[in-house]
Specification:
Length: 188
């Protein structure tokens, strides 16, 4: 039914393409299979969370993205601000999302503070601010079509835009993968 409605909207010129959000590889393949069988528009993108702490996309959706040409619109590349360094050592700056809204529980799991600090210190070891490092990582992934940022200031937006100019090196990737191999996806 969803595909049929999307087909009608495309035919009427109301939309050009459509995507999914928070979808699995199996679910995405079902959409792709049905669109082919029924001659309906195919999924173009998936909007899923992707950052150092939540690399689930790497497990199967990255392969699907490559073979089926379905790009990722990565949301929360900075893990709701936890990968900016502003919450290191339990800090809760005035005006921050964590201080204003009670929504960061995903990044406040038992070992999250230690892992967040490790990624933020890793960024600093490469002489980068943590937000730039985390955003550049997401922008460097070959399956990422777009990174959805939640900037609340011009300075944050400027940092997000600079991510596209960072040359992500093999050394950076190895360092990030070494942490990931040890801690996995600590914030489900």
């Amino acid at each position: 039914e969803v595909l049929q409605v999307m087909g009608e909207l495309v035919r009427e010129g109301k939309i050009r393409h459509f995507g999914l959000s928070n979808e699995s590889a199996w679910g995405t393949m079902q959409y792709l299979k049905l669109s082919m069988e029924l001659g309906l528009p195919r999924v173009q993108t998936i909007q899923n969370e992707y950052n150092f702490l939540r690399r689930y996309y790497d497990m199967d959706l990255a392969e699907l993205a490559f073979h089926e040409d379905v790009g990722l619109l990565a949301y929360s590349p900075l893990a709701q601000g936890y990968l900016t360094g502003k919450y290191d050592h339990g800090a809760r700056p005035a005006g921050s999302r964590s201080q204003l809204f009670n929504r960061g529980q995903r990044y406040e799991t038992a070992n999250a503070a230690e892992v967040l600090l490790e990624y933020n210190e890793l960024a600093r070891s490469f002489h980068m601010e943590p937000a730039l490092f985390a955003g550049a990582y997401v922008a460097s992934r070959p399956f990422v079509t777009s990174s959805i940022v939640g900037a609340t200031s011009i300075a944050q937006l400027e940092t997000a835009l600079r991510c596209a100019d960072v040359v992500w090196t093999e050394e950076m990737q190895k360092a990030v993968d070494a942490v990931h191999q040890r801690v996995g996806n600590p914030c489900p």
